[in-house]
Amino acid sequence: MGAMTNHSLRSAFASPTGSVLSLCLIGLAAGCGPSENRVESGIREQVLHINNATDIRSLDPHTVTGLPEFHVVAALLEGLTAVDPEDMSPAPAAAREWEVSGDGTVYTFYLREDATWSNGDPVTARDFLFGFERILSPNLASQYAYMLFPMKGARAFNEGEIEDFGEVGARAIDDHTLEITLHQPVPTFLSLLSHNTWYPVHPDTILAHGAIDDPHTRWIRPENFVGNGPFTLERWATGRRIEVKRNPDYWDAGRIHLNGTHFYPLDPPVGERAFRSGQLHITDPVPPERIPYYRDQLPEVFMTDDFFGTYYFRLNVTVPPLDDPRVRLALSLALDREMIVDNIYGGERPAAYSFVPPGVPDYEPEPVIEPDLDRARELLSEAGYPSGEGFPSMRILYNTSDEHSAIAQLAQEMWRRDLGLNLSLENAEWQVYLDRTNRLEYHIARSGWIGDYLDPYNFLNTMAGGGGNNRTGWANDDYDALLNEIVGTRDTGARRQRIREAETLLVNEAPVIPLFFYNRMYLKHPAVQNWRPTPIGYRTYKDVRLAAEE
Amino acid sequence: MLIYIARRFLEALPVLFLVVTACFFLLRLAPGGPFSAEVDIPAATLARMEAHYGLDRPLFLQYTSYLGNLVQGDLGPSYHYPTRTVNEIIRDHLPISLELGLWGLLVALLVGIGAGVVSMVRPDSWLDSLPMGGAMIGICLPTFVLGPLLVLVFSLWLGWFNATGWNTAGDRVLPALTLGLFYAAYIARLTRGGMREVIGQDFIRTALAKGLPRGKVLAKHALRPGILPALAFLGPAAAGLLSGSFVVETVFHIPGLGREFVNAAFNRDYTLVLGVVVLFAAMILLFNLLVDIGQVLLNPRQRFE
Fold first, then answer.
1. What is the dihedral of CA A195, A200, A202, A207, to 10 degrees?
2. Which of B27, B35, B40, B270 should we substitute to test contact with A (largest number of A Cβ atoms within 10 Å)?
3. Cβ contacts (< 8 Å) between A30 and chain B: which residues?
4. Which one in A181, A256, B117, B221 has a CA-CA gap of 20 to 30 Å to A284?
5. DSSP string spanning A174-226?
């Protein structure tokens, strides 16, 4: 594939279209076409070519918000802990070991003495403190600063209530010993630390390009970037690719097989074509309409992995009759989720009958509702709309996408056929869609949530009464009380129980109608080995290697 | 002639000013903003981000300071890509769009005028209907269909070219064809129409009656006035070609300005949208001027006041 010989060139010019080529492009033809495609050269050079799906905005671990950014940052920087892809447990990274106090609020981390920044400086406890101070600085305006709020005083510092960072619960005992104090025990704390918000930055580099709390300096450019991760930043050409190179001074360099990774910003259909023509080792995601083809014809390249996300409809509970829980539950019970995932994703995504997606080690989804048309019709007539009579005309809002459109059409048809409701569809551009869901100017809206860390609380908390991510107008005192209990409970069994209760309450009250759980469906060349993604998008490139095909 | 050109330049300034003004305020009317996100952002954080870019100031002040910077050639910072300026983004991506446009223009001219002239030689024969039929298909076939079709055939089936990218010389072929053939189709039809009109005129009959060879009459006497309609079309077409095609750049993943422009509109990257609009407007004005000059040169009957 991809090879272009002189022979094929000549035959190109012999064909009718070829004559057009010959007219205008003969000058180009000399250099035409690589003799070896990128997949092959990548295997030879141990350079992974991967589609990152979009142009990333920044590489600053403290201000980036998207997964594509995280995928690159994870190659360049390293936090105290990493995620063990085997069981999702926290694994040592910049910290070689740690101790936790009896009450679960004080963590002492012992940093590796041999870990260095890419400029040769040792990685010290003070670098971590500098990072924490930076992301919490009000002027940095980090959207994800809340990830550090379990740390004592972090929130107060971020909100400007205290100005001395010394009052925040983090201190360097010596160069390689770091102590973090939480204001209450957080069972998932060690996992949180693998998130980019907790990453250290190199203080001298940051300060050489601006103030600690200036979010727009040029330290993230390849010529300036200093990191402590397994790879270093070589090239960042927007629209083309980002190149990272193996860091020979990384403390665990012996484990790194790859000499580099190139990230490309291709749209999914373009990425799929590039994959087919031998230009990419991995492209993620697969366009939905191509799923059945790859699953059936090329199962050796078609991959599915857990992804910590849920797709759901939001209902605006401030608009009658959606203020009636019976109506909302009826809508939920009438949806045939299996049919939706079969039609759109070739059955490759799990239908959702609960809110928290799979992937949490000790919390598997259990259905908390069961679709039931008879009950749905009953509920609807109890609410005063027998066979849908008198039900006002409402709209299903979604942001522009063939996928969302098809899903909304299926739901529309199910609600029409089975409940007698006449809903219409409404497509909006992304920003308009965000604006309208924020202002509660919608009836039913397509929605989704991707978790930032492996904890069901991350999902349930979005629906807290009055929260900024709620966007339904729904508030329930019992639910909020359960959320508080979840935060305060250390016993994992009891905590799990509360989570299940909260989830059951939420899905039966139905301000949200879960449809299915996301997963990652991607194409991977068989040469790529030890590729082990995690449900939260954290990637370790350390063990990955490219093996020549037999 | 110089006075004419200078006057046209001066006339272009108010047009540019109107374009900038309308675009500036229309952008702000669109829902959302550069910092809108699916995840809730605390109000204080949002306020700080807006203050950093001066978006908290009265709109009219923002407008005047934008104009002030614009006059000095400073298009401002991008709101979507922190640490990058609009000038940098244009500098990075415009040359690629220009190159793509040039190849596309070349395809459009050679194929378009070629097909137009060929179909003229034997009107209503297969030499006429075949290119014109092809041109009709070219006009009807949108680039987002033609592009993937070319990729399917020449890249995935035959393996001659890369499916995406802008690295090797071969990477230029399919995008240039995709972009150029659409315009070629128009130019072919316009050339044929223009030539047919000319060919019926007295001076052609005179030339033929004097015994000049038919080919020479076509090439020397008929072509010049015959391609005038195509030339008029070429002004806006060239500006369109050179300023980047969102579709072609997306289909082949070419890092040109067209893609950046459309994405900037979705991202509400106000300064980037404005910067590119100003640039495109200036390019369209410039190409229209060039076409007017070209028409004068080709058609001595046309006099400018």
1. 90
2. B40
3. 169
4. A256
5. ETTEEEEEBSS--TTHHHHTTSGGG----HHHHHHSS-TT-TT-GGGSTTT--
d(CA B88, CA B96) in angstroms, rounded, equals 14
Q: What is the pLDDT of residues A126-164, one digit of tens each?
A: 999 999 999 999 989 888 898 999 999 999 999 999 999
| Closest by CA position to A239, among listed A260, A267, A216 | A267
pLDDT attached to residue A295: 94
Interchain pair B106, A24: CB under 8 A: yes
Dist. CA A189–CA A182, nearest whole Å? 9
B157 part of contact set with chain A, CB < 8 Å = no
Residue A55 CA: distances (Å) to CA of A68, A242, A261, B78, B260: 8, 9, 16, 14, 10
Q: What share of chain A is helix, strand, coil (3-state, %, to 5)?
A: 35, 20, 45
Q: Where are the beta strands (DSSP E) in chain B?
A: none
- The reply to whether residue A468 touches residue B40, judged by beta carbons under 8 angstroms, is yes
Give the pLDDT score at A322.
Answer: 95
CA dihedral B288, B290, B293, B297 (to 10 degrees): -120
Interface of A with B in 131-150 (CB under 8 A): 138-139, 141-143, 145
pTM comes to 0.85
Which stretches in chain A have pLDDT values below 70?
Answer: 1-35, 549-550
Out of A2, A28, A269, the one facing B173 most closely (by C-beta) is A28
- Asked if A469 and B176 come within 8 Å (Cβ–Cβ), the reply is no
